[in-house]
Amino acid sequence: METALDKFESDGLFWLPGRDDNQVAGRISFDPAKGTKLSLIGTFSNSELGVDTGDEMQVSTIHGVAGKRFITLTECSRTGFRVESPGFPREDYRSDATFAGHALLRPDGQGFTEAIIRFSNLYDWVGKSAVSRELSYDNETRAITQAVLTLTPPRTEEHPADGCKVSLSPSWKVLGGAQKPGFEQDYSLRIIYDNPVDFAIVRGDISILQDLISATTDSASVPSQITLRIPIEEDDEKSKPQPIVHLYEQPSADPASLQRKARRILVGLSDIGGLPAVANWLNFMRSHKIVLGLALSPIYRGMYVENKFFNTVSAAETLHRMEFPNEIRPAAEYKAFKKMLVRHVPKNYQSWLSQQLSFSNEPRLRDRLKELAEFGSLAGILDCDVQQWAKAVTKTRNRMVHHDKGQGPGASSTELYWLAESLRLTVLLCLMRFCTFRDYQNRIKEHPSVKLIGRRVRPILQADETVH
Fold first, then answer.
1. First CA to last CA distance, the chain
2. 129, 190, 403, 405: which one has the fewest Cβ atoms less than 10 Å from its Cβ?
């Protein structure tokens, strides 16, 4: 089975959109670790030295044919030019998103009608096997006399979301032969759009579904295959099937993170409420992607523990600013209160005081964290006092930012790690509640990794209280 993570390399002909009279031979290659590279034996430039003036060489899209497929390279940048003996030029390009399939994509904003995505860890997250096994034994020897494997593929499920439908589709195939028979099972998530949408929307939606699987399996999930459908051109026959293309781009996770497979799922698809919960997640996270990016970055990429802590603090504060009241007093009331305070100081200090009070009506970080923890029921999950937890996190953050002299060394790397884990858990619990997931709290509370977070965080909170 070919996947979007498989390497490939092929020779072909390539040209710029609208300039197919200038086709250049070259080799295209894709490597998940390096992305797509195009090496031309020649140049798209009209200049013998490969240098054009003006906007002529602002190449963003390249068309081609290679490996018996149409190729569209997008988000391109030229990475090299050289002249080799006996005097022919060579050009190198890099593409951040490459499409290969039945058709070339329009350079002026191609629309897409459907995305079909297979993810790593998706099968385990769904947790439904289509294969059942039945064994018969000899009554006396207890030896197996018959073994029957039955494949009963589950039905495709579908649920509406904003501007689209989300579908969970099973796939399977027979493996081996008479000597080693077997089955291969998998699932794919589909997004079927009501109307054609830009690639930026498709890419964003795929990322949101990927983050859902990563967050709930507590391990990096990436697309293993992405198939996109494009609408039929107006002058084509309506009876023709929509052309499909496969997307190739670098995974968002580094190789080390991809090697860490999901061991024990935090919450599976059935635990959160099935496909309706997936649709709710997609709807909600379209306007909250920054929160996921900050909270899940340690899962996808290795980083210093200090960065991990700051990212999760930022994720929590950003979520609170987006979803909770961002003022202590009503705006009109505070405006009048501020004017009253400013009037009571000498005139030459009024401008300074007004600036100092500009953000004084916003909740403090400790209050934001406490409200998030209460909303996500962190106390019941980790068996801790949320007031102490919010205080400890705020103190740690302030100590790292301000470096006040005489305040001691601050939190250790171990303490930073576990406080960051508790912050990420808090953000995830809040997101699950916002997306109206069901029956997830008990499963999360009893999960070994969550229990470990509780065991590591509680002594940190107790030590912080002892100091004060």
1. 61
2. 405
* Helix (H/G/I), strand (E/B), else coil: 171: strand
Structure tokens belonging to residue 191: 């997004």
**Of residues 220, 251, 256, 225, the one with CA closest to residue 31:** 251
Over residues 154-183, mean pLDDT: 85
Prior bond of 255 cis (ω within 30°): no
Question: How far is it, in rounded angstroms, from Cα 171 to Cα 285?
Answer: 27
Structure tokens, 184: 């291969």
| Burial class, 149, CB count within 10 angstroms (exposed 0-12 / middle 13-18 / buried 19+) | exposed
DSSP string, 71-111: EEEEEEEEEEEEEETTTEEEEEEEEEEEEEESSPPPTTT--
* Number of CB atoms found within 10 A of residue 237's CB: 7
| Pairing label, strands 35-40, 88-101 | antiparallel
Alpha-carbon span 276 to 306, nearest angstrom:
37
Please name every residue paired with 468 in a beta bridge, in sequence order, or none if there are none.
none
Percent of the residues in the chain that have a pLDDT greater than 90, as a whole number: 55
Check whether 409 has a pLDDT greater than 80: no
Q: What is the pTM of this model?
A: 0.87
Distance CA 227, CA 6 (A): 14
Element (H, E) at 192: strand 182-197
Q: Are 305 and 452 in contact (CB under 8 A)?
A: no
Beta pairing partners, 172:
185
